[in-house]
Amino acid sequence: MKNEKLHIDFSNAVAYVNAYSKPLPADLLLKLYAYYKIANENQNHPGSTTPLINAFKANALIQAKNVGRTEAMRRYIKLVQKELKASTK
C-alpha cells in the first residue's frame, strides 16, 4: 500500500513539473532529470543533439548513481515540494 502511494505521489509530482510554466534553474532541472530517469529505470543515454547538454545530463546521472529507484522517487517528490510548490505559496 505504501509503495502504491509513493508511485501516485511521484506521478503527481511529474505531472506538476510538466505543467509548470515558469523557468526553472538548470541545477534543479538536472536533479529532476536524474531522479526521473532512475525512478523509471531508463538506461538510455541522454538524447540531446547538443553535446554540452548531454555532458551535464550524464554528470547529473553520475552524481545520483548510488540512488535506488524508490529513493529517486522520494527525492523527486521532495524537490518538487521544496523548490516548486513552496515557491508558489
| Average pLDDT score | 92
Low-confidence stretches: none
Write down the overall geometry.
Answer: globular
CATH architecture descriptor: Up-down Bundle
CATH first level: Mainly Alpha
Structural class of the helix and strand makeup?
mainly alpha
CATH topology: Acyl-CoA Binding Protein
- According to DSSP, the number of beta strands is 0
Q: Give the number of domains.
A: 1
Residue share in helices? Answer: 55-70%
Give the CA-CA distance, first to last residue. Answer: 30 Å
C-alpha-based Rg, rounded? 13 Å
**DSSP helical segment count:** 4
Strand content: under 5%
Major β-sheet profile: none
Order of helices and strands: HHHH
Oligomer: single chain
Structure summary:
The chain is built from four helices and no strands.
Entry keywords:
89 residues, mainly alpha, Acyl-CoA Binding Protein, 0% strand, globular
Report on the structure:
- With 89 residues, this protein is an all-alpha fold.
- The chain has four helices and no strands.
- Helix 2 runs antiparallel to helix 4.
- The relative contact order is 0.19.
- The mean pLDDT is 92.
Layout of SSEs?
Layout lengths: L1 H18 L6 H14 L11 H13 L5 H17 L4
